[in-house]
Specification:
- By secondary structure, this protein is α+β, with helices and mostly antiparallel strands.
- It contains 20 helices and 22 strands.
- β7 and β8 form a beta hairpin.
- 46% of the residues are buried.
Length: 628
C-alpha cells in the first residue's frame, strides 16, 4: 500500500545535468524542492564525452553562469584541459571547451545538491505521476507518495531506456543503470506525446594499452580560460589529448559487418542525432571519405579510461575490438567498456510553451533530453529555465522567457517549442541569426542583469559586474581620446602586419579598427594603458572592430522585437481565419504561438500566412477599439 511521505513546491525527476540546474535554481529561489534519482551515484554523470562546452555549447555554459547557474563553476573546479575553439574564425563562433574529470564532476555536483538549503536529494525511482488538485502526486517504487505543486521531468535517456550492442538488446539506462520503465508508461497514460530517439557512445580504452608515441598531441590553451565569470584562476592544464585517424582497413571491417549493426538491421526504431552519428553511420553516409578523425581523451586524473571521441558504435563487442585495433596507436588496445547505442522515450517539445511548461498540463515542465535535445549543455540550459519558471509560478511571479535576441538559451528553447525536434537537437552557432551579438565573451553583459532581477546573482557579484561595465566604457573613451604619434618603431610594426604606415598623429581607436592590429602589438606604444581584466580588452577590441556589423545586427533585433510585441491569443481556433493555408491553420493550432515573431518561425507558416495574421490582428484591434 502507498503511504503519504510529504509535499514540495518543486519536484525534479532526474539528477542529470538538466535536473541539477532545475533543482538548484528552484531551491535558491526559496522553494521547498526535492530532486529524485534512481541512483545517487549517477548524479551529474557524464555517460558520454568527458568534456563540457564546445562549438555553441560553450556559449550555453557561459550564459548559464551569467544567469546564476552551476555548470560553468563545477566544470572549472574539475577541469583537466581547456581550449577555445575556432580561434581562426570570427569572434561570433569562438567557443570554450574543457576536458573534465567526470567522476570528480559527478561527486562535486552531488555534494552541492546535498549542501543546498531548501533542497532534498533522494534516491527513489518515480514510477507514477498523476494530476492532483493544485499540482501532481508522485509515487515511488517503494510506494511513497509526494504531493508536488510543480514538477520538472528531466529523465535524460533513462525513460524507457534500451541498450543495443550488435545482436544483444536489453532494458537499461546509461552506464548500466536501471531504466525508468514504469514512469514511461505513466507519462503515456497521462497523455504526453512521447516518441523514441536514439543516441550512443564510444568504447573506453585502457590507457596503458595505447601507444601514444606516434600520435598527434593536442595541448590546451596557455593560460586556460574558465567558463565562470567568478573563477579567477584555473591553474595549469593537467592533461594532453591525442589525435589519430581511421584507414581503409577500419572501413572494410565496418562494411563486412554492417549487417550486424542494429541500426542497419532495423532493430532500432529511434531517430539518432544527425550531427553526432555512429562510426558505422559515418562510413555508410560518407562512402567516398578515406579516413575519419579520432580524438583520444582522458576521462579523469585517477582513472586509466580513455574516451574515443568520434567513434560511437552499436556493433558487436568483438567487431568493435577489430576495427579499433586497425587504428594507429590502438593496435593492441584493450576495451574497458564497449560502445553501445541507447534508445529512449522523449516528448514532442512543441507541446510546451517558452517557459517549458506543458500547455495542456499546467505546473508540469520538461527539460533536457526528455525534450528531444542532445548534450549536457543543452540539458543544463533547459533545466535552469524549467526550474526557475516552476519556482516563479509557485511564488506567483512573472515567468522567465529568454529570447532569440538575448541568448543562445532563448534560441534553443524557441527552436524546440516552435519548430520541434525530429531528431536529437544539438545547439550550433548557425542556429542563431544574431550570433555576432550573442558572443560567448559578452554573456554576462546580456544576462547577468536578468539573473540579478530573478534573485540568483548576489549583490556582491552584481556590483562587480557593474564595475566591469564601467571599466569597459572608460577604456573605450580612453581609446577615443588617446592619440598615438608616428615613429619608426610603430611604422615597422604596421608594415610587418601588412597595414599602412602613419605620417601624423592617429587616435588609438582608429588603429584598433584595423583588422591586422590588436591590443598585443600596440602595447609598446600605448604607455597609459590601464591594468584591466583581459576579458575587458577582448570585448572592447571586438566591439570596435565589428562595430558596423554589430549595429546592423542590433537593427535586425529591433525589427524582430516589433514582431514579438504583436501578441496572439492563446485560445483562438485558426481554422476560423480565412486566408490561411490549411497547413498553417494546423501548425498554428498545434503550437499556439505567443506572438507574430514566433509564428513566423513555425515550419509550414509562410510569409503570406503572416500577412494574413497581421491584417487580422490590425482589424481585431480596430474592432476592440470600436467596442470600447
Amino acid at each position: 500500500m502507498t503511504y503519504y511521505a510529504g509535499e514540495y513546491d518543486v519536484a525534479v525527476i532526474g539528477a542529470g545535468h538538466a535536473g541539477i540546474e532545475a533543482a538548484l535554481a528552484a531551491a535558491r529561489l526559496g522553494c521547498r524542492t526535492a530532486i529524485f534519482t534512481i541512483n545517487m551515484d549517477a548524479v551529474g554523470n557524464c555517460p558520454c564525452n568527458p568534456s563540457i562546452g564546445g562549438t555553441a555549447k560553450g556559449h550555453l555554459v557561459r550564459e548559464l553562469d551569467a544567469l546564476g547557474g552551476e555548470m560553468g563553476k563545477t566544470a572549472d573546479e574539475c577541469f583537466l584541459q581547456s581550449r577555445m575553439l575556432n580561434r581562426g574564425k570570427g569572434p561570433a563562433v569562438h567557443s570554450l571547451r574543457a576536458q573534465i574529470d567526470r567522476r570528480k564532476y559527478s561527486e562535486t555536483m552531488k555534494h552541492k545538491l546535498e549542501l543546498q538549503e531548501n533542497l532534498e536529494l533522494r534516491q527513489a525511482e518515480i514510477t507514477d505521476i498523476e494530476k492532483a488538485d493544485g499540482g501532481y502526486m508522485l509515487t515511488t517504487q517503494m510506494l511513497a507518495q509526494y504531493f508536488c505543486k510543480t514538477v520538472v521531468v528531466a529523465t535524460g535517456t533513462y525513460l524507457g531506456g534500451r541498450i543495443y550492442v550488435g545482436e544483444v538488446s536489453y532494458e537499461s539506462g546509461p552506464d548500466g543503470m536501471f531504466p525508468a520503465t514504469k514512469l514511461a508508461v505513466s507519462l503515456k497514460n497521462l497523455g504526453l506525446p512521447l516518441r523514441r530517439f536514439k543516441t550512443g557512445t564510444p568504447a573506453r580504452i585502457l590507457r596503458r594499452s595505447i601507444d601514444f608515441s606516434d600520435l598527434e598531441v593536442q595541448k590546451g590553451d596557455v593560460p586556460p580560460q574558465p567558463f565562470s565569470y567568478e573563477t579567477e584562476n584555473l591553474g595549469e592544464n593537467k592533461v594532453d589529448c591525442h589525435i589519430s585517424w581511421t584507414n581503409d582497413r577500419t572501413k572494410q571491417i565496418i562494411l563486412d559487418n554492417i549487417h550486424r549493426s542494429p541500426l542497419y538491421a532495423g532493430r532500432i526504431e529511434g531517430v539518432g542525432p544527425r550531427y553526432c552519428p555512429s562510426f558505422e553511420d559515418k562510413v555508410m553516409r560518407f562512402a567516398d571519405k578515406p579516413r575519419h578523425q579520432l580524438f583520444i581523451e582522458p576521462c579523469g586524473e585517477n582513472t586509466e579510461e580513455m574516451y574515443m571521441q568520434g567513434m560511437s558504435s552499436s556493433l558487436p563487442e568483438e567487431v568493435q575490438l577489430k576495427f579499433y585495433r586497425t587504428i594507429k596507436g590502438l593496435e593492441h588496445c584493450v576495451i574497458m567498456r564497449p560502445a553501445y547505442a541507447i534508445e529512449y522515450d522523449c516528448v514532442d517539445p512543441t507541446a510546451m510553451n517558452a517557459t517549458l511548461e506543458f500547455k495542456n498540463f499546467p505546473n508540469l515542465y520538461g527539460a533536457g533530453q526528455f525534450n528531444g535535445s542532445s548534450g549536457y549543455e543543452e540539458a543544463a540550459a533547459q533545466g535552469f529555465v524549467a526550474g526557475v519558471n516552476a519556482a516563479l509560478k509557485v511564488q506567483g511571479r512573472e515567468p522567465l522567457i529568454l529570447t532569440r535576441a538575448n541568448s543562445y538559451i532563448g534560441t534553443l528553447v524557441d527552436d524546440l517549442v516552435t519548430k520541434g525536434a525530429n531528431e536529437p537537437y544539438r545547439m550550433m552557432t548557425s542556429r542563431s541569426e544574431y550570433r555576432l551579438v550573442l558572443r560567448q565573451d559578452n554573456a554576462d553583459e546580456r544576462l547577468t542583469p536578468i539573473g540579478y532581477e530573478i534573485g540568483l546573482i548576489s549583490e556582491e557579484r552584481y556590483h562587480k559586474f557593474l564595475r566591469k561595465q564601467e571599466l569597459k566604457k572608460e577604456e573605450i573613451k580612453r581609446l577615443q581620446s588617446t592619440t598615438i604619434s608616428p615613429s619608426r618603431e610603430l611604422n615597422e610594426v604596421l608594415v610587418s602586419r601588412e597595414t599602412s604606415e602613419i605620417n601624423s598623429g592617429v587616435r588609438l581607436i582608429e588603429l584598433m579598427k584595423r583588422p591586422q592590429l590588436d591590443y598585443g602589438c600596440l602595447k609598446p606604444f600605448d604607455k597609459d594603458r590601464p591594468d584591466l581584466d583581459p576579458n575587458i580588452f577582448e570585448q572592447v577590441e571586438i566591439e570596435i572592430k565589428y562595430e558596423g556589423y554589430i549595429q546592423k545586427q542590433l537593427k535586425q533585433v529591433e525589427q524582430m522585437k516589433k514582431l514579438e510585441k504583436k501578441l496572439l491569443p492563446n485560445d483562438y481556433d485558426y481554422k476560423e481565419l480565412k486566408g490561411l493555408r490549411l497547413e498553417a491553420q494546423e501548425k498554428l493550432n498545434k503550437i499556439k504561438p505567443l506572438n507574430i515573431g514566433q509564428a513566423s518561425r513555425i515550419s509550414g507558416v509562410s510569409p503570406a500566412d503572416i500577412s494574413v495574421l497581421l491584417i487580422w490582428l490590425a482589424a481585431n484591434r480596430g474592432q476592440k477599439n470600436e467596442d470600447a
